Amino acid sequence: MQREQISVFDMFKIGIGPSSSHTLGPWRAAQQFVQLLEQQDALPLVEGVRILLYGSLAKTGKGHGTDIAVLLGLSGDDPVTFDVNEIDNKINHIKTSHKLILGGTQEVNFVTDDDLLFLFNESLPYHPNAVTFQALLMGDKAISATFYSIGGGFVVREGDQGQSKTEVDLPFPIDTANDLLHWCMKTGLKISEVVMENELAWRNEDEVRAGALNIFRVMKECMFRGCHTKGNLPGGLNVSRRAANLNKKLIGTNTYSNFDEWVTAIRQTGEGFKNILDWVSCFALAINEENASFGRVVTAPTNGAAGVIPAVLLYYITFCDGYTDDKVIRFMFTASEIGSIFKKGATISAAMGGCQAEIGVSSAMAAAALTECLGGTQRQVLMAAEIAMEHHLGLTCDPIGGLVQVPCIERNTMGAIKAITASQLALQSNPENAKVSLDAVVRTMWQTAQDMNSKYKETSDGGLAINIPLSLPEC
User: Which pairing describes strands 46-54 and 116-119: parallel, antiparallel, or unpaired?
Assistant: First the structure.
């Protein structure tokens, strides 16, 4: 049986909001279905397409943009490069013309109400996030395939479960935190250094560094944009964006043309506790307000939790003198390894584990990364991750209206602050005295996920989702 091998670039993916499991994953699944048709030389024969959404993809799909994602994916558009400003125009054209250009080349008839079905009362056994694509061919033939969006933008096709991408010879194979600690103790390497050695099995060092810095570039652009954009979020809840107003309140009326100027100005606002707390919240709000607006974000490790790691990273950059390429890469590498341990041992899918699998994991990732970058030992790094997750255990996913807005956006501020607190606790503690290991918390999170009622797993069937009226003006 193959080990699951997860790269930094699997944990951090560039995409479009609002959800990695409900937007990015289905988008990738649609692209894979088109590739399947091309491989079978069937694309020119397609006369129509039907899309069946099951389980959580059906129940919260409209609020999460699943319908938009699958249509753009089938159209041959890519979430990394597609102009987010053109989303509405393209979707409106498909709906009004009743035409879909499959793979960007094959025009087929497509009536949204008839050919894109939300099967609210049906679920498939492997995973709650399932989508089936059916291509109707000339001669009354058809090709169909079912895909599962398993969280964080990861997708598996039915029949391929348990298989991973082509294995490489990793110098440090890791499934658990104990495995990671073993290699660190044996080699004396920091966690980020172990990650780099493994990444070199896939690509050379220049490519690794360039890829990591490109991910950081998207995070910076998203945060800067979110801190300078006002208005209400789409979707009908009329939730007001708060990051821009908070940014203006904290920094004044001066305008800044780029990220670096802005960061310099933030530093000059002071290092008081309340000021730093406000800025970390502002950073997280900015990312997730962009995510909720179908902006370009980085899954970290999911879209719903995309604000935690960038917010803690910018805290490190701004208030802890962490603004060098090497320090940023080190932060991201450490975070990614912690995220991969949770994915292998539990889940990063809210539809499987509730919000503990998203905000909890991202907080653990950020806590670990900050701890290493502030000089913590390998054991302190793992301790910080454990502390952060321990205090997210049992967190439900109950988005109001199926939108990644309430309570999702604020939860990113909480996850970021908890990550910083967890890091500080670990740095001031002796890990030898810890009663709970990171592996124990991973197991506990997965057990909690399995026990959790499906109402609290991104279905909007319980919790806040059924207790707050949809006319709520603000969270």
Answer: parallel
Instruction: List CB contacts of 86: < 8 A, sequence separation 6 or more.
Output: none
Provide the whole-model pTM: 0.94
Q: How far apart, in whole angstroms, are the C-alpha atoms of residue 443 and residue 464? A: 27
Pairing between strand 106-109 and 154-157?
unpaired
Both tokens assigned to 469:
């009226």
Q: Residue 18 carries which DSSP code?
A: S
Q: What is the DSSP letter of 457?
A: B
Q: Which residues pair with 16 in a beta bridge?
A: 296
Per-residue pLDDT of the chain (475 residues; tens, 9 = 90+): 457 999 999 999 999 999 999 999 999 999 999 999 999 999 999 999 999 999 999 999 999 999 999 999 999 999 999 999 999 999 999 999 999 999 999 999 999 999 999 999 999 999 999 999 999 999 889 999 999 999 999 999 998 865 555 689 999 999 999 999 999 999 999 999 999 999 999 999 999 999 999 999 999 999 999 999 999 999 999 999 999 999 999 999 889 999 999 999 999 999 999 999 999 999 999 999 999 999 999 999 999 999 999 999 999 999 998 899 999 999 999 999 999 999 999 999 999 999 999 999 999 999 999 999 999 999 999 999 999 999 999 999 999 999 999 999 999 999 999 999 999 999 999 999 999 999 999 999 999 999 999 999 999 999 999 998 764 333 3
Please give the Cα distance from 159 to 157 (Å, whole number): 6
| Distance between first and last Cα of the chain | 47
Residue 132, strand partner residues: 52, 146
